[in-house]
Amino acid sequence: xxxxxxxxxxxxxxxxxxxxxxxxxxxxxxxxxxxxxxxxxxxxxxxxxxxxxxxxxxxxxxxxxxxxxxxxxxxxxxxxxxxxxxxxxxxxxxxxxxxxxxxxxxxxxxxxxxxxxxxxxxxxxxxxxxxxxxxxxxxxxxxxxxxxxxxxxxxxxxxxxxxxxxxxxxxxxxxxxxxxxxxxxxxxxxxxxxxxxxxxxxxxxxxxxxxxxxxxxxxxxxxxxxxxxxxxxxxxxxxxxxxxxxxxxxxxxxxxxxxxxxxxxxxxxxxxxxxxxxxxxxxxxxxxxxxxxxxx
Amino acid sequence: xxxxxxxxxxxxxxxxxxxxxxxxxxxxxxxxxxxxxxxxxxxxxxxxxxxxxxxxxxxxxxxxxxxxxxxxxxxxxxxxxxxxxxxxxxxxxxxxxxxxxxxxxxxxxxxxxxxxxxxxxxxxxxxxxxxxxxxxxxxxxxxxxxxxxxxxxxxxxxxxxxxxxxxxxxxxxxxxxxxxxxxxxxxxxxxxxxxxxxxxxxxxxxxxxxxxxxxxxxxxxxxxxxxxxxxxxxxxxxxxxxxxxxxxxxxxxxxxxxxxxxxxxxxxxxxxxxxxxxxxxxxxxxxx
Amino acid sequence: xxxxxxxxxxxxxxxxxxxxxxxxxxxxxxxxxxxxxxxxxxxxxxxxxxxxxxxxxxxxxxxxxxxxxxxxxxxxxxxxxxxxxxxxxxxxxxxxxxxxxxxxxxxxxxxxxxxxxxxxxxxxxxxxxxxxxxxxxxxxxxxxxxxxxxxxxxxxxxxxxxxxxxxxxxxxxxxxxxxxxxxxxxxxxxxxxxxxxxxxxxxxxxxxxxxxxxxxxxxxxxxxxxxxxxxxxxxxxxxxxxxxxxxxxxxxxxxxxxxxxxxxxxx
Lengths: 296, 288, 267
What we know:
Shape of chain C: globular
Order of helices and strands of chain B: HHEEHHHHHHHHH
Largest interface: A-B, 83 and 90 residues
Oligomer: heterotrimer
Structural class of chain C: alpha/beta
Strand content of chain C: 15-25%
Distance between the termini of chain B: 68 Å
Helix content of chain B: over 70%
Radius of gyration of chain B: 24 Å
Largest sheet of chain C: 6 strands, mixed
Low-confidence stretches of chain C: 1-14
Number of strands of chain B: 2
Mean pLDDT of chain B: 89
């Protein structure tokens, strides 16, 4: 009734609201482009002035040397270590949680994972400094525990909850029929899992692993505190017991100290751009796997 | 022969069971260690004075009062800033867009925002605000950046609660002659309020623990109290922990780092519990 | 066919041979809910026994108790004794041994995303087999499941390409490949087309010569066509059980007659 009398103002309200919602959506979507665009522009100086030195192993701003290879390599190795520990442990534990008949244990694990998800990354860094790096140093009789290995271990702990909870969901999402049909044929538990459940769940599990990898890749604080921050390739290359640097730890250490507009700053922005591109690609790939899993 | 193979199958099963159980045990051991260490170490540092006193001696003594104030200021202002954009985007995605392609595009943007590493947000804020706009180190810029980081979480949660509203309501409201705006005001917003509030609180819980996005652009380690203008730096818990962790050889600094960590986690838990509570309380309220 | 089933609730009447399947005072709970209470029954070797009754009567639960497929369900508990031959099913320390004796086919066909031959061999494990032996198992099982003629040319194609009716027969072939003594069928024709349903009925009539078939069905006409024995369940109890001829005659219990008769009229 009220609408009747205020048709005009209702109509203008209607279009005002439409303008507001489309504008805010435009802003949200535009943010991504803005971030990318700005970083692209800002990384130009590095490409033009230091393009030749970018893919070398020496990083020395005073010499105009901006070799990013140690950071790229460090990122790769740290990710690898984190995944090597977190993926198998996460998947095995998820199998137990998904297959147990105890609803209580499942609920307990869910709340534990929610607590873990609330621990900020800086606190993981503190734990890395106060415990993990000390254990590594003492256990291996080294002078310092701030190593590539330590960073990998801390990251493994940090991404374990993601892998665990998404893999549990992936296994629980497998239709009950599949499990029961395999059980009814007299298969042992591990055969049921390996031959009936895994083929259905593996796409979702791959998605979970990629998502976790994406998170690990962007993780800054914890890595920065425990990796030792040395811009050199380890000698020999597989020596994970040496200090190193990742893209994120480099950014965390140096962005605040470099002058805006300098080649140094530009080189750091370029690294950040590389990082974002990889992370978004990984997220897209994991979404692809999740969708592929839906269709089975 | 058949017996031999069957024996092997049995072994495989035992190994499998032991491996899964061992992995879960390891996970629980890690969890217990993490929570135990934080509570044990933090508990030794926390006292009423610690929470209510300003930091002294570069954090090694005194408390974390201004860090708590700064952190809360940063995230609460961020929540206020993100609210209109998140609700607007969610409404647009839920009530106005019909083309599947456009929906996918919006999702892509939100997922990308979610995937961008937190340190990149810091670099972005440093370039755009601190340097191009010339704001200098400013807590308000920190809030803007944290609002950007919260945007996908709040939007997606709000959107999901709007999608959960049955189309019957929309059709009935439209049949009564309500305009789109009136439908949104009288049906959609009240019924998705719980999702919006929950999303905001989850966003707050995440944002308050972030260090990387604010450490270049919004915070200072010492000599700051409550800011008197938008363009002053503040102190915050995560950056305070970072600074103390870097002096880890000093046992007093380390102790206070643990105290600040426990305080930070308790704030995260507080927001998470409020989110949990909002999800149920507001939902039953709005569905009445 | 001689029947050890008597027209009343308890049917343990000391037959010459031990019954193939017997339930002694079996009660089943899901958490607080009592699904089956005090079930007593004994089924002879071979032949087809049909479990009929309204939805929620506990038919599927009774069937699923037999191969302990509910063991992994939180809150599931069974009291009383279920025996296969003279052996209590709770005594199987290796549950897969029980499940190799008691095959089961479910309401909805569920083939694995592999080839037809691999599906048939899915449960055949624990013995090393030559290629010829494998082919023989595949062929025999598919023949017994009346599917061989339709698929013999494409054994290596994905089982997902089969029609639903064919998939259900493949599920039966898969169960037969492990040579079960007892075959449990949980509404095997409910989710497939009538023609395939008839094909499955025909093959059940073949199987009854050497296998004890226990089948849950909602279809009274089907029961009439293939059952040797009928058990009528209601509210978690066996209301009446007996030979098919008896159960469909006018001498049976009134409730049974109403159920069987009414459903029969619908057909």
